[in-house]
Amino acid sequence: MVAALVLTVSLTIIPEDACGLAEFNRRVSDYTQLTSQAAAAVPPERVFDDPTEMLEARASLRKALRAARPNARPGDVVGGCAGHMLRQIIAAALARPGVDPVELKRQFAADRPPGAKRPVVNHRYDWRLGAWMWPALLRDLPPLPGDLEYRIVDDDLVLVDVRASFVVDILEDVLGIDEE
What we know:
Layout: H1 2-13, H2 16-40, H3 51-68, H4 80-94, H5 101-109, H6 135-140, E1 148-153, E2 156-161, E3 166-171
Antiparallel strand pairs: 1-2, 2-3
């Protein structure tokens, strides 16, 4: 209850967050429309008997998405006012009693095998980076449509299209941890 109150107060105090939420929702909607158009150009989704066929279908969808947004770069969806709003939400979550950002970062990376590739916008998401998200933060972030999910990778917030295993966008240094 207190965390929700803090978040509500911070959104009330910072008027650009209302703009940020509207901007974020519009950009996510634009991406989902683009995804629908790209998906229409590839074989339809179905239940696969052969995992290789599923991986090929995902690769085809990624290729279509990449072609539909050839100039995609960090901040296209989560930048500007939207990025400011997301940073405020994350900062409020990190300010809760008992939350240690360094420990969170360690937990996010704990099970990561060596060789996992850092996320790059408009490329395949390497699931070795992790498939879980901090539930307390997930509760506070704006909801996403079914195929999109948030991930924390190192200090970055990554927006992932799980259907295509595709990095939609990255908001860098959201945990604010100084590396030594």
